[in-house]
Amino acid sequence: MLSLDPSGPEWDCPLGSKDLEDEGPWGGGSGLPSTGCFPGSWRQDVGLDCKGSPEGTEARAWTVYYYSLLQSCLQQAGLPETQDRSQAPRTGCPGAEVTLCVLGSPSTFLPVLLEGGVQSPGNMLLCLSPAWLMKVPAPGQPGASAELARLLEDRLLTRQLLAQQGGVAVPATLAFTYKPPGLLRGGDSSPGLRLVELSGKEGQETLVKEEVEAFLRSEALGDVLQVAVKLSGWRWRGRQALRLHPRAELGAVVNTVLALLEKLEEEESVLVEAVYPPVQLPCSDGPSPGPGLAVRICAVVCRTQGDRPLLSKVVCGVGRGDRPLRHHNSLPRTLEVALAQCGLGEEAQVAAVRQRVKAAAEAALTAMLALEAGLSAEQRGGRRAHTDFLGVDFALTAAGGMLTPVALELNGGLCLEACGALEGLWAAPRLGPAADEAAAAPLVETMLRRSARCLMEGKQLLVVGAGGVSKKFVWEAARDYGLQLHLVESDPNHFASQLVQTFIHFDMTEHRRDEENARLLAELVRARGLKLDGCFSYWDDCLVLTALLCQELGLPCSPPAAMRLAKKKSLTQLHLLRHHGPPWPAPSLHAVPCCPLESEADVERAVHQVPLPGVMKLEFGAGAVGVRLVEDAPQCHEHFSRITRDLQGEADHPGIGLGWGNAMLLMEFVEGTEHDVDLVLFGGRLLAAFVSDNGPTRLPGFTETAACMPTGLAPEQEAQMVQAAFRCCLGCGLLDGVFNVELKLTGAGPRLIEINPRMGGFYLRDWILELYGVDLLLAAVMVACGLRPALPTRPRARGHLVGVMCLVSQHLQALSSTASRETLQALHDRGLLRLNLLEEALVPGEYEEPYCSVACAGSSPTEARLRLLGLCQGLGIDGPSYPVAHFLSHFK
């Protein structure tokens, strides 16, 4: 991330100054910073020089200045000073792993630096000088974000964009623009925003006087008593030079405009804009004898997953109403405190103001992203040039009896700095209210995603097993991430064969020959000259084969023995039952008694060893196919005989593990609520965990009916589920990868149902990406390449999803009419539901898997649940034999 702020203090023309000539580093000053201006004590004899890239005197002075500023910021934040490691650099190569870099002022970006240290320890870098970086153009990706920054720093352009595209209130403005840029020409006029195009800077006295006079008399100014005259254009970024004039002083306003016209270059403007008076809020103490208090609201809004804006923090400044409020001359405070100081403390009104600020700030970023999307890579300054956060400054006005935020300008760095100052009230280590709502948190998450994408682009990965229609997202995501995929697949006509760099047709259906097949595949890979960075699989049947192949090729993966343990369900439970620790709590606390079944004699023995009722299932099964509650010995024998007869091999039901055989197991049935825990592990360390809740199943079957994310469990119970899943994975030797663990929460704590040593299936990857902005697929391929995934340390859900499964046996009529695939897809495209298609055809059968998942989003589980229930009733998914309300009852 590159800061384009100037390397020097902000130039600020004093209020009322009649001299608008350039000063300081912006103009004719020496450009050298003052020395010794920071209180505190820290080492000065540190190595700030960059070998091979010496700095000149002025650049060196600024580097020393920023070093002292950094130490001062750290000291005030309660943090230790930096260490000088110039003589003993750390090992490793930044850029070979997830790396975040800031080139900019330490005070501006301190919130980003601290949050980066929390979310990705050791990977956040600060450059105090451009000389510390080497610029190497990426192939086919020349350029930097300077061009895009210039667009965003044009007050007039952004103001017009916010008003026209975002529907955001902006000050009434009269703009004199000299040879305006193409983006300003020919646009629709906005209420209160008048653009006057000038072909020259001289001889404009008559036109300027007429336009200013008309503007000062216009209704657009309302009851405004003052106007400000200022310059607009990227050259003037950071400069607060302005002149305030009473609205009645036509001559003074005209003279200031004419004086500023002389300074214009092409595509720059002079603005005359309304200065809104302080809002007169009711005050319990009665009217104040002095000037009223004015509020300036600063909102930081960040781009999140899916290019959606998210308000991350609101900070306010409060000051005298008879002078403009600026960032550096007011103390930051929360919106609630600021409004209370101005006389507004009623909770509902404050919440309404916050909601309006949120809507306006997010609309501002949405408008900017829309502008970006319409620009060419050249106009943006490069294919990877993006705007990932905005700071929006608002004034609070009373329009139509309602408090309304009016967007004054975009101040990304200043707003971020203000948020950091507010968070600094709770000095590091971050405690108290600021700890869970760092302004830079969503921005750092986006930076981590960008770094991961950059790191993974062009990686060569071998995928073992293509899967079915439910895994189509893999190929779309691979194209988006720039991954180079090579596929091994048993079906020579699989649709994915046309979507990969290399297709290797290989019959892998007989998994009892996995060791031999792994050796043969390794030879094929070498013969084709594939230079692989990693190898992975998300398909149940191929997980052990993939681990063996990785072992043959010397690629990262969990050990084959661990995969075998997790793949065979009875082996998982029996192994963990013997795992008593230390450390404690041991995995044995979560395991469930069971018996493997390969013959009728095994069944007879098992019914005397496993307490009934129990659950019978396929040892290597998937999708809950063939899983059944058995009450007594006759039911056990009957179900074993039926499965042995009906599901003998892969051809009887492809994709559920019959290539491993049709052995079964009987395990104790445990009462409780069912949950999924999706884990990301790297080097045996837990990097992330996501817990979801499942609804009651249709006993005696266990096919999933409904789900909710994030979990509704209490925090302690959620933590218990995560730790149980983590301990079970470690107990089986699963140290690296993305794993899905199914558990039940009983009165005695979590109990293990099974471990799926791969990314969660059905809707889970999609839901986690939607709610948390974390892509389990990207995490899985990074682990497969031996790279630690870039994940936020405290993922926060951006809402709630509640979904229900549709089954062909229950919904064939609806899925063929009112809830057809086309209807559901149209509702998905309109954002009314979230559709995850799991099967291609509407084929009923005794042993079925869900056809699709239909979900609704909401700001709360109740809102999402009620939306989904209404939708299911309207589409015909709900019915007497499939009572959706009952399946959703756990999510109240």
Question: How would you describe the overall organization of this protein?
Answer:
A hairpin with a 2-residue loop joins strand 23 and strand 24 (about 750-755). Helix 13 (about 515-525) packs across helix 14 and helix 14 packs antiparallel against helix 15. The longest helix is centred in the middle third of the chain and has 27 residues, at about 345-375. The chain is an alpha+beta fold and about 900 residues long.
Helix content: 25-40%
How many β-strand runs? Answer: 27
Q: What's the gyration radius in Å? A: 32 Å
Low-confidence stretches: 1-30, 428-435
Strand order of the largest sheet: 24-23-20-21-22-25-27-26
Shape: elongated
**In DSSP terms, counting alpha (H) and pi (I) runs of 4 or more, how many helices?**
25
From the helix content, strand content and strand pairing, which structural class follows?
Answer: alpha+beta
Strand proportion: 15-25%
Largest sheet: 8 strands, antiparallel
| Amino-to-carboxy terminus distance | 43 Å
Nearest-integer average pLDDT: 87
Keywords:
892 residues; eight-stranded antiparallel β-sheet; single chain; 25 helices; alpha+beta; 27 strands; five-stranded mixed β-sheet
In short:
This protein has 892 residues and is an alpha+beta fold.
Chart the SSEs and their pairings:
Layout: H1 57-76, E1 100-103, H2 106-119, E2 124-127, H3 146-152, H4 155-164, E3 173-178, E4 193-198, H5 205-216, E5 226-232, E6 242-246, H6 250-261, E7 268-275, E8 293-304, E9 308-320, H7 335-341, H8 347-373, H9 377-380, E10 389-399, E11 402-410, H10 412-423, H11 441-456, E12 460-464, H12 472-481, E13 484-489, E14 502-505, H13 514-527, E15 534-536, H14 543-553, H15 560-567, H16 569-577, E16 594-597, H17 600-606, E17 614-618, E18 628-630, H18 633-646, E19 664-668, E20 673-682, E21 685-694, E22 706-709, H19 715-732, E23 737-746, E24 749-756, H20 764-772, H21 776-784, E25 800-806, H22 808-815, H23 821-829, E26 834-837, E27 852-858, H24 861-875, H25 884-887
Parallel strand pairs: 1-2, 3-4, 12-13, 12-15, 13-14
Antiparallel strand pairs: 3-7, 5-6, 5-7, 8-9, 8-10, 10-11, 16-19, 17-18, 17-19, 20-21, 20-23, 21-22, 22-25, 23-24, 25-27, 26-27
Helix pairs in contact: 2-10, 2-11, 5-6, 13-14, 14-15, 15-16
